[in-house]
User: Fold these one by one.
Assistant:
Number 1:
Amino acid sequence: MRESRLSEPPAVRRFLIAVAVLFLALFLLMPLAAVFTEALRKGVGAYLAALWEPDARAAIRLTLLTAAIAVPLNVVFGLVAAWAIGKFDFPGKHLLITLIDLPFSVSPVVSGLIYVLLFGLQGWFGPWLAAHHVKIIFAVPGIILATIFVTVPFVARELIPLMQAQGTEDEEAARVLGAGGWQMFWRVTLPNVKWGLLYGVMLCNARAMGEFGAVSVVSGHIRGQTTTLPLHIEILYNEYHAAAAFAVASLLACLALVTLAAKTLVEWKTSQSLREPAHEH
Amino acid sequence: MSIEVRHITKRFDGFAALKNVSLKVPAGELVALLGPSGSGKTTLLRVIAGLEVPDEGTVLFDAQDATARSARDRRVGFVFQHYALFRHMTVFENVAFGLRVKPRRERPSRAQIAKRVHELLALVQLERLAERYPSQLSGGQRQRVALARALAVQPKVLLLDEPFGALDAKVRQELRRWLRRLHDEIGITSVFVTHDQDEALEVADRVVILHEGCVEQEGSPEEVYEHPATPFVYRFLGNVNLFHGRIEGSKVHLREFSADAPADLGQEAIPAVAYARPHLLDIDHQPPSGRPHFRATIAHINAAGAVVKIELTTDSGAIVNVELPHERYRQLQLRKGAVVFVTVKDMKVFTQAQSTLGGGI
Amino acid sequence: MGLSGFFRRRRSVLPGFGLTLGLTLLYLSLIVLIPLSATFLKASTAGWSAFWHTVTEPRALASYRVTFGAAFIGALVNALMGLVVAWVLVRYHFPGRRMLDALVDLPFALPTAVAGITLTTLLSAHGWIGRYLEPLGIKAAFSPLGIVIALTFIGLPFVVRTVQPVLQALDPELEEGAASLGAGRWQTFRRVIAPELWPALLTGFALAFARAVGEYGSVVFISGNMPMRTEITPLLIITKLEQYDYAGATAIGVVMLVISFAMLLSINMLHWWSGKRYA
């Protein structure tokens, strides 16, 4: 952007900067600092012990399992949806994009509730599932389902605008040069969207590992069995093990920081590829 | 390989981009599809490449129906307007792409691929840039990489979409001549799309002029320039003066002058328009006898250039452009504001109906 | 490939349209549409009067007031502060600007439970901030104020990220033009810049508000959860579930879903109005 020579008086400038910095410091920096300070309040030994305790390890395992199922599913969905929406024209496209966004606007608690109403004892399939001894609600499958629901939009949302903007010329070029469908996808389409995909995956993963409301409704809070990391934090905090709760929370805070770093990297990479004078559209 | 399209029609959302277009491209020729934007020229090129499926009509390669063949199986080389170079691949990898994606039994060995790519890069004079990425190249270099990439799979036909559209004027000139030489060297049947008449007339063996989804005229550059078949071609290829009037019997009565009509259309007056190129008008101080002429005042003279461009105002207030050789200009000693007589050496008359619809007599 | 034949196929040389569209619809149906429809069906089995009674009982009404009131104030704070932050990040250069810019997305990335316990700790009587508020008679944790603070935190990125690109794309010539016509700086802002920012600001506000209304994790720790006073609607649903009142939970869940859809619709119309999507 060209810098405008016009600007506000220095006093106004300084005041606005001070207000913005103070606001962000209070709302972002201070909570971030507090997480790590509280986590280490009782020393490094207590910190590590809180992470190594069996229930914590079980929560880590369950969180990783949940993400390992929800994230790949939503990556495949995101790629598939972005291909259909980004590269083709068809009626009802905007409605479909809105539908993909839907889980974003549903309250996490309601996201959990809808699965309880489907698979819980009082739900549509509840009696049938009970008769066949399949447990979904208050068990791991319910946690995974609720997590999939809340993370549906992440990858698709990153990829759809990207694929739309890139158009179809590269793919057409690959086709004319004799590439098959998969060759085109792996060698041309995927490399073109890799940075957006990476960010989408990071966001999806952060949410999958950090989801609280939806998982809380379907989990049943059985310690060591159906508690993910955020639920484990809740239990520790409510039992007045604040330092332990923050120790576990610091893991998720680190994950958040890595996600933000990935975002910065991706933005830097895409701004670089945009700076190419290649596409004068 | 020769190309033929028969009765191609293509609609987009109710808009007809191509209307019953037929065309033949003999093997080894370099043909230009020329037309303004929206004339359907790019769509026609994409139909030939198999990138668009026509609603009606057939595409034939060497007299064999290729309409149902996919873009992948047509073995055409296609150079995209914005090159569509794969930006995460080096120049070498871009050119090698078509060879690397071949089915295993047809795929050349790594060494063969490397050899072929380097031959092609030598052909387009880019051997030294093999390891660069597209973002590190100039527009003209990208264009040549795109060409090398298209040629790598040894296509039977080369199709180029506005090959010089995104380049600045000087690079365009060079690349034009270079493309012509390259074509003469490898002799591949080539079709390119352009909206630039100079480009089409300079480079191509044959020019096909498209307008609103129809072929207006096709022929050698000389034919289409010297004998435009329709008012549209007249207007599109170079500057032209328009004289309005009517045809009555064997005479054309224009606002400025009268002349013999090209054909006797009966006694009823028919509105008509006459087209005359600026270099086919002459200027004199005295009214010439026996030739159609009219009086005009010199409004502006531009003597910088290969010819002298003179703008005149007729008595009825219309503007007429004349181009004179410098020699004739000096001989006449013309000055701004002088009243002179303009002679029409050659012109083409169309009825008003043809002029708006685009047909010819 | 039946679907692809049905739709107009403009870019037909690319493969996989029917397959990918089919898979997209299948996945969305299984994960999103069928569960959502089942919820509406379930609510309809209880009957209208029971439904109406549940969703209008005093405790539910109080929870709506708390939820929407706090979400509205939070979004309002974010609209104002988000505008200032976006302005400062785009227009001024100062040390730490890039880091702050990157950190703006923290509330997106930080799990809500972590945000919840952290804000509670900070604002409680012994916390870094709470200890200074306590002597002033301000009770931040376990009060409506705490809810507003939590909802401000989780909605913070929305306004900044919708306004920022619009500010960046604003043509400096507009402002130079206004100045050359004799407008003062404040006049230029009010008459030239503000009209350009309105749609984005409103969209950011709506997004922050929508997110805040449904929020649970960051609020549940800080609110104190007193029925009628600091109980938010999502918590009421959980309470009803814990009491095995499935019909009640469903009824209130449906109210929240309808509100979500209405907000999604209005946000989409805002996008349509402002001519671009928030991405």
Number 2:
Amino acid sequence: MNVLIDKFDVFAGGFWLTLQICILAAIGALILGAIVAVLRISPVPPLRAVGTAYVNVFRNMPLTVVMFFAAFGLPALGSNADFLRIPVIDSLFTRLGTDLPYFRFALIALVLYTAAFVCEALRSGVNAVPAGQAEAARSLGLTFGQNLRHVVLPQSWQASVVPLGSVIIAMIKNSALAGFFGVVGDLSATADQLTGAEGYAFIPVAIGISIGYLIMTVPLGALLDRIEKRQAVAR
Amino acid sequence: MTTGEPLIVLDAVNKWFGPLHVLDDVSLSVGRGEVVVVIGPSGSGKSTLCRTINRLEPINSGTITFDGQPLPAEGKPLAKLRSEVGMVFQSFNLFAHKTILENVTLGPIKVRKEKPTAARERGLALLDRVGIANQADKFPAQLSGGQQQRAAIARALAMQPKAMLFDEPTSALDPEMVGEVLDVMTSLARDGMTMVVVTHEMGFARHAANRVIFMADGQLVEDAPPAEFFANPRSERARDFLSKILTH
């Protein structure tokens, strides 16, 4: 078990990189997922079709395949995903700005894939709001956008937050795939490096990696439990 | 009471829910200031009729005209029409996350772009009119059913509508709360509001309505002044319906 102490800096570095991917991917997936959800519940049929098609594609494709498309498809199209080199943000999340594009590719794949699940979690929240609420808003003359903003979304949030949390927890674990698509030094790639290149025993390393993921997921789960309890009391 | 061209005109309106013909060639016109009460057995299409007038239910054929204009199909024009037609639901449908006063002022502020202070002032006056000004800062769930329904009426009135639709406004209420809601509706009728009221309250139909419409199986079976309808129903269906509800 000495590896946990001797190589603590390697684990900590991997943890920090994985945390960076997860923070950025969570923000991206929440924004994109919200947009897709609005498309899926819009009164305009073509927009609904676009939203539904998006969810069908990305919810049903294995993440590994999405990662393949991002890591090999984007370069084939001549893109290095340079649009993600966002000035101020790349000074905090330094990997966004590197010449090696694999961090950006993994991020894109994770966002595209997770957004489909975010969309469905938000939509289940919207469906939990009684139809009469939206009907009353419409009968007052509120437009679709006003209806969402002032009546439906504030009430759907309660029903969305727990499934949304599960989606983000799943995303954190899914981020482990990034290490196999060229992202050097994230938590899962750390295992590869320590056991393969440096010859440490696998089980202690795997335990170290697991602790790293648990530090991210367990507090998130506890936070969700608290939110859920508070809501139950408020009801 | 009726002056000039009618406010609401339905012409040969048909609607199907799948194979079910819920509105069968219904034609009806409601004059300005007129109070029309729609009665009939459940499943006769009376709620659907009420909901087609602000297009909460789209129709399959026929035309509906409001204030001289055919109902718009979608978008901004439809939202504008709905803002001119107040609607009161059986289940109140007050916005659960907003206070009573916020419920009443949301439409004027967001749809009519009124100043919040002016909207609040008018909202409070309306809540006072329906007798619940002291509940303004509570949430809907803290009010009794009768109070909630009166708040819902105030919310609809805040848009200064040209007509009010009532879809079974007292059917979800405890018996002792029916009266307070009917009182508000009666005073509205007396003030000359154009009203279409779907209800089972025969007393209200008798004393507040100008006309009673009797519907059965999606068809408009009778259309008569209340005194005439209750004394001498012409159709077998109406006689049968009245005998069932008036014997107890």
